[in-house]
Amino acid sequence: MLLTARRQFYRLRSRLQGNSVAPPLLQCWQRSALHRRNCWRQLEFLVVDTETSALNVSEGELLSIGWVVIAAGSVRLGSTRHILLKPRRSVGSSAAIHQLRDCELSAGISVESMMPELLQAAEGRVLAFHHAPMDLAFLNSISQRLYRAPLLLPWVDTLQLEKQSLERRQLPIGANALRLGSCRSRYNLPVYPAHNALMDALATAELLLAQLSHRGEDQRLGDLL
Amino acid sequence: MKAESFPSAALSPELQAIRDFLAECMPFEQLADGELDRIAGAMEIDYFRRGHVFTSHEDPGGLRILRSGAAELRAEDGRLVDRFGETISFNLMGLSQEQPGIRATLIEDSLIYRLPEPAYQQLRLQHRDFDRFFHSQRNRRVRRAARRETNPSEMMKQLRDLMSTQLLWVEPGVSIQQTAQKMTERRVSSAMIMDHGPEQGGRLLGIVTDRDIRSRAMATGIDAQAGIDNIMTKDPVTIDAEETLFDATLFMTQRGFHHIPVKDKDTIVGMITSSDLMLARRDDPVYLVQHISRQQSVEGLRKIIGLLPDLLVQWVNAGIRASQVAHLLTAISDAVTVKLITLAEQELGPPPRPYCWLGFGSQGRDEQLLGGDQDNALLIADGLEPAEAVWFEKLAHRVCDGLNACGYVYCPGGVMATTDEWRQPLSGWCNTVDRWTRSPTADAVMRVSIFFDLRAIHGDASLCRQLQQHMLKRTGGNTIFLAALAENVLDSPPPLGIFRRFVVEHNGEHADELNLKKRAVIPIVDIVRIHALAHGITEVNTLRRLHALVRQKALTIGDSRNLEDALRVIQQTRVEGQVRQLMNGEKPGNYLNPDHLPKLVKKQLRDAFGVVVDAQQAVKLSYRPGM
Lengths: 225, 627
Prior knowledge:
The complex is a heterodimer of chains A (225) and B (627).
Chain A: H1 2-16, H2 23-30, E1 44-52, E2 62-71, E3 74-84, H3 95-98, H4 102-105, H5 111-122, E4 126-129, H6 132-147, E5 155-157, H7 158-168, H8 180-185, H9 197-215, H10 221-224
Parallel strand pairs in A: 1-4, 4-5
Antiparallel strand pairs in A: 1-2, 2-3
Chain B: H1 16-22, H2 33-41, E1 44-48, E2 53-55, E3 63-68, E4 70-74, E5 80-85, E6 89-90, H3 92-98, E7 103-106, E8 110-115, H4 117-126, H5 128-147, E9 169-170, H6 176-186, E10 190-194, E11 204-209, H7 210-218, E12 233-234, E13 239-240, H8 245-255, E14 259-264, E15 267-273, H9 274-280, H10 285-294, H11 298-305, H12 308-317, H13 322-348, E16 355-359, H14 361-365, E17 376-380, H15 386-405, E18 423-425, H16 426-438, H17 442-451, E19 455-459, H18 461-476, H19 479-491, E20 514-515, H20 516-534, H21 542-551, H22 557-583, E21 591-592, H23 599-623
Parallel strand pairs in B: 9-10, 13-14, 17-18
Antiparallel strand pairs in B: 1-8, 2-7, 3-6, 3-8, 4-5, 4-7, 10-11, 11-12, 14-15, 16-17, 16-19, 20-21
Helix pairs in contact in B: 4-5, 5-12, 10-13, 12-22, 13-15, 16-18, 17-19, 19-20, 19-23, 20-21, 20-22, 20-23, 21-22, 22-23
């Protein structure tokens, strides 16, 4: 399968370059066998959301990350983690969006300390994001820098799942139709005040449960990737 | 996949929205912030679609709180127990202990917070208020559910809810006399002999009862200063708090015990006596009436009357017929009235003059159902002094207010002892009756039809008999009066449409519904009353009036039976309608929708209405010849 093949590629390439993929990521790969035929209630998900100082990975950096575990079809409120990251540059005017100010972030930790924790939490789990490309761009770039390979972990995207289901029902997709709050309202999920990475991760996790419940019990990992 | 368990951390500070929500949910709002965070950390969030069913036998347990969506609880036979939405919680395991087979169905897509069973139980142990909330909530639900149970389940009540928890215990060295003194002070019939108090985990060594003091101490002449342990029953049998009224009753009758200490795990928590068991059988009408007479306040009476809806459902489901149900309900309202009168007399002092409290209408006729108003009057012996009148006015107010508080609402037409018109000496009443019968205006006829169904509820019944004799003397041969009464009978529009649709009310909230009381019961009562008055019959109960009319050959057996059957069918339909309304959580009333009646019942009702129309025609011929 594609993910395995790409992991193999990075393993070989880095070995040829004389330094292998770094242990935290390698270990995570080794412990994350993929079960494409498993139904969704048998899977565990690590639902992740990040806050960044800019939309583009070349211009911004990661400011905070939050995650929560779904296991046996339930969100575990005791499994949540919220990490503030110490930015290398001032967050400047982006503070208006994510409400994270320089003074708060200076108490944060480095990405080097955060990543092993994230990888450990991701072991054996499927990552989930709302609009994955954005979060993954930042995480992959960090992973590439620290471990010499992108994350290459299985992931699902609640935004894509929603787009599929709207398209399947041939519903028009309006300008804001795929925002997290709009998606949630279609499933009778409560309105949450934005905006921190953990609250959004939790909101995404509930959306994922709702989407999977509506798709049916027989949804397998292979149907979601 | 990972199989690790999830050691729950406290809720992250970032999840303020969760915290805010829980703080809105009873009884979580009682918990301190730190405690709330710890509990929230143990929670799981589930999402299920509309139609998902939680059944108790495959439930992992835990307390579920609806975060969004709505759910309903249904008993095993499918009847609705409760329906609720956001912020409401339920514990299926606990509910199913009281109501096996209960299930929860989502009626909307729902997001549910679940506190796993161990954490939930731990929380209940640690917080008494929290525990009490769920205990009482469960009781409320079970009570509602019990309404829907076909068989009375009072016998399945747990001893925990019946036992006395005011325990008297003494140490073994305490003298017989001291123990007896303590028992007298505390007004209990038994004492437990323990090495320490139950709170300190004391061990139960023995038990002493009134009878032991009589037979083992007084009768044997043992020194009253001897230790109580000399006469105690050693190592008495105990019973578990989880056991039921049924178990305890069986146990007592089989073993001949009257007192059994109650244990919860290894701690003594109470004492159950044979009289506790007797009082607990509140669904038994005899005990209920006894229970009423023991009350010392309006509030106590009100609580008992509050049980009537549930009891009505049980009685009707157990097959008690409508006329018997009416008899029970009348006996209960009589008991409440008498109790209110005696309570008032205790406060006001003895009555200055003999009097009789009169009940009218359905109470007078012994035909009461639920939701009726009060119709009453005071009949006072002649020679009333103005100063004495105040006493009776006060009495009337106390009793009528009390009845109103108990749910027998004030009479909208003012037929109550609180009005001067309905609170008179015998001679005054006789004058009133003379006036009514001499010039029977429409208003007078209306009053007569209420007043002539009178019964002595409390006090000097001979006053009531004198008044009734006077009434019957005035009405017996009074053709003008009887003709006016007959017109009133024919005035109440016959429930026609018999062969097509029922006549239904065309206005207000009961459009398309049929008022069985007004359209069917009252016409029969009116018909039978006019016959009774014409023939000097003293009975007021409609069925007994019919029987008396047959004995006096005023009605044929056939006509009498027809009316009797018609009344039974209508009353039965009415009672069953009230039971249905109660089970749907509605107020019991007299309206019912003919469309909701089974075919057979409709046919029976149609036949019954036919009988009423025929009987009305007969009244017209008998009392209004030539009109």
